[in-house]
User: Fold this.
Amino acid sequence: MAGPSTGRPPRRSRALGSAAARLVFLGPGLGYLIVFLIVPLALVLSYTIFKRGRFGGVVYEATADNFGRLFDPLYLDIVISSVRTAALTTLIALLIGYPTAYVIALLPRRWKTIALIAIVMPFWTNFLIRVYAWIILLSGPGLVNNALTGIGLIDKPIQLLYNEGTIVTGLLYSYLPLMILPLYAAIERLDPQLREASANLGARPARTLLSVTLPLTVPGILTGCVFVFVPCLGNFVVPEILGGGRSIMAGNLIRDQFLKARDWPFGSTLALAVVAILIILLFLQAWVSRAYGGIEGRRA
Amino acid sequence: MPRRRMIYVPFWATYVFLYTPIIVLVVMSFNAGKSPYVFEGVSLKWYGELAGDETIRNGLINTLIVAVGATVLSTVLGTLLAVGMARHSRSRLLDALGLLPAILPDIVLGIGLLVFYVTVKMTLGLHSVILAHTVFGMAYVAAVVRTRLNHADTSLEEASRDLGASPLTTFTRITLPTLAPGIAAGALLAFTLSIDEFVIAFFTSAPTEPTLPIVIYSMVRFGVTPEINALATILLAVSFTVVIVAQRMTRLTESLS
Assistant:
């Protein structure tokens, strides 16, 4: 079955040669992804232009109402405020995550592995339990209030739960490792000679960090930001458990359209909006990374 | 040098931030009292309560059924796909498709599958969660196995083909054994992710057959109970053991090869 090797490198052509082998290896996985990923996504996409069914589902009559409702202040405000919450979380994650990743990247090899495992470890524990832990910490009689009254910073317990700050804390706690890992990878990849050269030319460590390391790790920064921002936007558990159901985010809105309001077409439209934001961010990230690829290439 | 020390402040703050909640959960799980905030002495009371809780036990059984089912499906489909993508395809579209389940927000995959199941009139249950978890499980298995494939030496496979072995023989006798550590790592990843997965299960499960994360979700929503602390501690112990064992295994296979 091997095809003629003229024109192509022989190894490649032989590997690609057998159509039967391609079918056996690619067929099942590809078929599965088409049925359980592409078709469902296509259904969600098609739902955005139909009318809602009375008890969920859809009536196949075309309408543009769903997109119109996206701009209804009632929903638009929620989408905007969840973009703001997600952006704030991402910014804080970057501000804490960058120095952390920087220190880890400069640690001796043995400690580096341990430090990295310690960053990932909480990520392998149940997400809901990680969020729940913050109720114990932040509630009225909780640990944080006790500590604050203990050191005399406040007289009596203050309301720490159920506001935007709590939601940001919960989201940050959930997704901080997703910021640190790509940052670590980007800083680790940098040639240490660049830092040495900067130091030899008389730059202080802070100056080297700001003028050499930081600009060269912009692609890593963007990857980390996308990794944190996107799951924040679709999250409905943190706002519900730590936000007390008062301040809701885009994720809650989508969930409620499907399970409470039974308006599947509008829920689908909201989901499409989240995916659209994701796609824009991914393109932006790829575009900037490519622009920076030139700089890194020149270095070699 | 004091300026340089400044950078260690956020570094240590990160670890304090990541581990304080976990330590508090573990300590409070041994609390003798009912208060979730005041420690009143050491006891295993809540572990006893947990052991007798039928809802949690059922949730755990459901989760294990789903995780095993999804892991088996994910491992078979993901391994085949990885070999297919690395050796029999040059399509970048296919590469992107393989990564899609890992990038897509889980809520979108969740509602997509719910819509799909309803459209094809499939009843929801553990089977629908298994099929759903296979979508992302397969993507992760394929990614892990592919990394291993890209680093693997192709000369053995070529030798096998040159000696007249069929693609199937080459696959079962050469490729598969070489990939075994990667497949094991991918399967472990799919299993762990499935055990922990909440959002997709939330949309694709039947209310009568909740998985453990869904049970935890309904408990957490109704407030704080010390039983959850005990459950959290057990789950933490299991996760930590799995991560450490996986780490040791990788180091072992690395030193062997």
